[in-house]
Amino acid sequence: MDMSYLGVMSRKNEIMQKSVGIDYKKYEFGSIAFDYEKMMSDINYSLNDIKQIQLENGVGNTPLKELKNITKMVRKVAPKGKGARIFIKDEALNDSGSFKARRASLSCYHAKKMGYKGVIAATSGNYGAAVASSAAKLGLKCIIVQECFDSKGMGQPEILEKARLCEAFGAEVIQLTVGPELFYVFLNLLDKTGYFNASLYTPFSVAGIETLGSELVKQCITQVGREPDVVICTNAGGGNLTGTARGIKAETNKKIEIVGASVNLKGLHMASDKDFNRKSFTTGHTGFGIPFAANPDRSDVPRSAARPLRYMDRYVLVNQGEVFYLTEALALLEGIERGPAGNTALTAALSIAADLDEDKMIIVQETEYTGAGKHHNAQISFAKNNGVNVYFGDPEEEVPGTSIVLPNHPGLIKARVVDLVHLKKSCIKNHIANNKNNFLMYEDILFLMDEVNENELFVLETIKDLNVKEIKLKGGNT
Amino acid sequence: MINAGSYVQIHKIILHPLERSAQVPMDTKAVPLEMFVKGFLLNDADLNDFVQIKTVTNRMEQGTLINITPNHKHNFGDFVPEVVQLSKMIKAFMDGDDC
Predict the structure, then answer these.
(1) Does residue A478 belong to any structural domain of this protein?
(2) Gap between the Cα atoms of B75 and A326, Å rounded
(3) Tens digit of pLDDT for each residue in A427-473?
(4) Which of A7, A77, A299, B10 allows an S-S link to A201, with CB 3.0 to 4.6 Å?
(5) Do A361 and A463 reside in the same domain of the chain?
(6) Residue B22 near chain A (CB below 8 Å)
(7) Do A181 and B57 touch (CB under 8 A)?
C-alpha cells in the first residue's frame, strides 16, 4: 500500500467512506446538486432521540441566563428607548466545556452503535475535548489531531490547553506544525486504525447541535413568555449556526433573525507558519467563517452538513480587542468568567442590541470554558510577546497580526456587516466551478436556491456570467 | 539513560519542505511538517535516540526522543497592565464616572 502523501491522498474518498459509513455519492444528482435534507434525515435519529442520548451523556440542558448588567451597559450607550435584553446560553457548563459536546455526543454514540472501536477528529478547538469526553464515557479509543506549533516549536496557548484537556479525558493527542497537510496525517490514522471519523461536518455532528436551538426557544418561552427576536451564533466552520438554526426551526414557525458573528482576522493567512501565532483567536474567526460559508464542501468530508448560508440572515464581524473587552466585562459585571473565542457572538450582541428597541430579546447561544492558555490574559500576553501592539483606542484601527485595540469606550464596539449577497454569489460560483458538465439541470437551480436561501432570479442572475452553456429543463427543453 | 516504560514525547518529520503541498504559502513550504506524540518508551534509550513508543491508544510510533518530562507549561500569561486598566475602565463606566 502506498503510504506516501500522494498515495494516501489519492485514496481519500475510499478512506472517508469507510470511516464515516456514509456513501455521499448516493445524495448527488443533476450536475452539481445533492440532497442535503435526505442526507440529514438518513441518520435516523430524531430530535427527541438526540435529546435523550445527550441527557444520558451529561450534555445539554444548559441554563439560559439574562445578562442584566451587560444590557444596562448597552442602554448607557444606545439612543433612548433602544437596548434589547441580552441572554446567554451558558454552554460552557457541558461536561467538556463548550457546545461542541452536543456534536461529539451524537458522533461518538453513532460510532459506538456502528461497532467502531475508536474515534478520530482533526481539530485544534474545543471539539477535541468534546470528542475525548464523549469517547471516555462510551469506552471508545480516541485520537485528536491538532495543528498546534509554528516551525520554532512555539505552541498557541489556547491549543495547548485543549491538548491538556483531551489528555485528561484519556485521548491520544497528535500535535503538528502548521499546514493543511494535517489532513494527510488524519487520513493515514483513519486508514491504519479503522476508527470512526468524528468530523465536525458529518450529519451527526450538525444534528447534535439542533438540540441547542430547540432548547433555547423553549427556555425563552418558559422564562420570558415568548420566542427570542434575534439569535447570534459565533461562526467558523458553519456547523454551530446551521445546527442551531435547524433546531430553532424544528421548535417554532416564528421568524427569528439568525445572525452569524466572526472575529475579523483579515490579512492573516490560515496556512502561514509566520501568521499562525500572530492571531489571538484560533476559532470563531473569518479565516474559517468566510471560506467555509462560500464553499462548505472544502471540509474533511465529501459533503458538509454545515451549510450556514441556508440559514443566515445577517453576518457580522467584530475585532479581537472588542471580544477581549466583552470577556472582561462578562466576568466583572455578570460574575461569569468564560473563554474569549466563545464570546464572539456576545460582542456582536452589544452592538446589535443598541439598535433594537428595549422590549426586543437577543440570545447569544454559546459560551466556552476558560482557564490557563484559554484565558484572555494569556492570549493578550502571548500576542504582546509575539510583537503585536496592544493599546487602547478606536477598534476600527485594529490590524490583525499587528495590533489589538482595546476599546476605550463600549460605544465604540461595532458589529460590522459582511456583504451577504457577495458571499452567496461566491457560494454559487464555487458550485459552478465544481461542475463537471458545462450545463445545469433545473434541479441544480433549485439546489442553488436552497443553498443560498434566495429566489430563482438571484441564482439565474448570478450564473449569467459564468461558464454555463445551457440550463436543461425537465423534458429536455432548454 | 531513560528506562523502558517511561512516558515520553517523540518528534518526527512528516513531510520535508520539498514534499509539501503545492497550496501552502512560501513561508510554510520552507519548513517541514513536524509531528509530536507522547507515549510509553518500549526500550531503554537516551535523549535524541531514535525510539519506538506505544501511545495511550496502543498505537506504535517511531521518532526522536525529545522530552522525558512532557509536562504542560501553558499558563495565564505575564502580568498585562492593559487588562487591569480595562477592568478599571469598565467599572468606572458602569458607575457613571465615565468621560
Answers:
(1) no
(2) 21
(3) 999 999 888 787 899 999 999 999 999 999 999 999 987 877 777 76
(4) A299
(5) no
(6) no
(7) no
